[in-house]
Amino acid sequence: MPSEMPARLDVPQDGHTHLILAGISGEKFSPSAPSNASVRAREFCEQLERGNILFFAPTPFAFSREKREFLLSQKQTSAAYHKNVAYRPAEDRLTGLAKSDAAEEGRLRAILREYSQEAAQFVGELLSPYKNAVRRDFASYRSVEERERPARLRARNDLPHVDAFPTRPTNGDRILRVFTNLNPNQNRVWLTSETFDVLARRIAGQIGLPARRGNGFAAKSLAAMARALHLPGANRSPYDDFMHRCHNFMKEDETFRESCPKQRWEFPPDSTWMVYTDMVSHAVLEGQFAMEQTFIVSRQAMVLPEKSPIAILEKIAGFPLTNPA
Ligand SMILES: [Fe+2]
Description:
This protein is of the alpha+beta class. The protein has helices at residues 37-49, 65-73, 105-126, 196-207, 217-228, 238-252, 254-259, 309-317, and strands spanning 19-24, 53-57, 85-88, 93-95, 134-142, 174-181, 188-195, 263-267, 272-276, 280-286, 290-297.
């Protein structure tokens, strides 16, 4: 179990991540059970936006033993299998699947589809202040043992980083992720370091602030043309550029890697946790067999808008960093 487990929601604001025991009991957690559900929902949003982790054990939505056993029985031999399998809800499609597993694709897709729907329903009920502001992004099945998993430096999961999607820019919207440890025997082990509100100024001093986008007619026309032609990076705002460089710096800079403060967390079998991974610097050290669902939450829906990475960076820069709608 995690080494630090505050039971109350009023945890200190110290630039570190805390674990919020949002649903711990012998029974399934129901987000709508308490009579003060709306107050509780706002508190959960606040804790997430401050850079804390909401933790649930057991997993608060249906995931049958039969589905879990099917996933754990998948073979691990193909080199291509050493990838995460991703599920794209909008297209009801899997990517990253080895050819040899094509026969099992239908079953795997159905399991990921159901997980994705269950996670979306749970988030919708739990975080009601975000109503109509949450977009379901990709889900993934992470079947590979993370300990000593080979990867190029920027793709390594075991080095603390904040998330940024180079091919799916958010333009200041937030990356909220739900994780479930399916492994019946093994904890999933994470590290967290300082939260983005503490890191931003220091890292900006190292890698430079985003450049101000040209505001003249020519600059706007060029940007519009690039978007119309779907040129790579055309939709990336100065915010997205900075977050991507920040992600790379945190993994590549040896001094940062070694000197950043680190907290270790152990998420036990049959637990689920959710976190803003653009705010919480995180790494996964150990664990095999996890599910994950990503949500993009509108920055306009934040209950603590000043805590958003976009607001923190714009305050430092002194000018807007998003693209016009
Ligand atoms: Fe990450």
